[in-house]
Design goal:
Layout: H1 2-24, H2 27-39, H3 44-56, E1 87-89, E2 94-96, H4 98-110, H5 114-118, H6 125-139, H7 153-167, H8 177-181, E3 186-188, E4 191-193, E5 211-213, E6 218-220, H9 222-232, H10 243-255, E7 265-267
Length: about 270
């Protein structure tokens, strides 16, 4: 009887230890495990393949491909371009992010109407193609480290503009980007919120988009991610490739210097 009591006590203690260990695993650990299970079957791969096809396909009024598109590293160079954007382009005279630059190439090389594309809703028509192209370009830089240029005065101006926009509070909720992403250790529901005022680490924040959203079955570009942040702040949607969204990309991208890109990632 005594031996049986000792055995039962040992089993109980082991069960309690296991329970305590389970309790110490954070929600972030659980989400990370969930994403890891989905990585091999990330639907973003399908968008990447579509983007590569669109890049090489002769389309538009000029029946041309995008293989001469200059994303900042020279005509046709894709690998490494994503981790240097947004940046200043002399031919347009402005700082552009990846999506804005792709639309410029679609207009100049293929003859598409850039203004018409900009007015198209995300996920529809040529805007859906822009997202696929952005996914393809981003994937070509997977594993590379962000290193946005800051030598041009416009690149410096956009960084400072993005910083001001990041901390600007307004709207009915008196929110700013910094309300969620301005300090360490915050989270909403089960989601940890990275501090984007500094380098949050490899594959976090700016270094993870474009990404496939499991919750709604959609591929989200960085522009759409920022627009949805404005929706959550109860602000009106910014226009496509507006200065404020590109400036925010400049601010977060420069802050992410040295972080490794995992885009296109998979999100909840």
């Amino acid at each position: 009887m005594k031996q049986r009591s000792v055995l039962l006590a040992a089993v109980a203690l082991a069960s309690l230890a296991g329970f305590a260990q389970a309790q110490t695993k954070s929600a972030a650990d659980g989400i990370a495990e969930y994403r890891k299970m989905l990585e091999d079957g990330n639907p973003a791969d399908l968008f990447e393949a579509k983007g590569e096809e669109l890049w090489k396909q002769k389309r538009g009024p000029k029946s041309a491909s995008l293989e001469r598109c200059d994303l900042g590293l020279g005509p046709g160079v894709v690998k490494g371009a994503f981790v240097t954007l947004p940046r200043f382009f002399a031919d347009t005279g402005r700082v552009q992010d990846l999506e804005d630059r792709l639309v410029t190439c679609m207009a100049t090389l293929q003859g598409f109407d850039a203004a018409a594309i900009a007015k198209t809703a995300f996920g529809r028509g040529e805007m859906a193609n822009v997202t696929a192209l952005a996914t393809y370009v981003a994937a070509a830089s997977r594993g590379l480290k962000f290193n946005l240029p800051t030598g041009h005065t416009e690149e410096q101006r956009f960084y400072e503009l993005g910083k001001r926009a990041f901390f600007f509070r307004g709207g009915p909720m008196d929110f700013s980007c910094a309300s969620c992403h301005g300090v360490d250790g915050q989270r909403i529901r089960l989601q940890d919120l990275p501090n984007l005022t500094k380098n949050p680490g490899d594959g976090i924040g700016f270094a993870a988009w474009p990404a496939y959203r499991v919750s709604n079955g959609q591929m989200w570009s960085m522009q759409l991610r920022l627009n949805d942040c404005y929706r959550q702040q109860r602000f009106p949607y910014p226009g496509f490739a507006s200065e404020v969204t590109i400036a925010l990309g400049s601010y977060m991208g420069v802050n992410a210097r040295g972080a490794e890109s995992i885009a296109p990632a998979i999100k909840r």
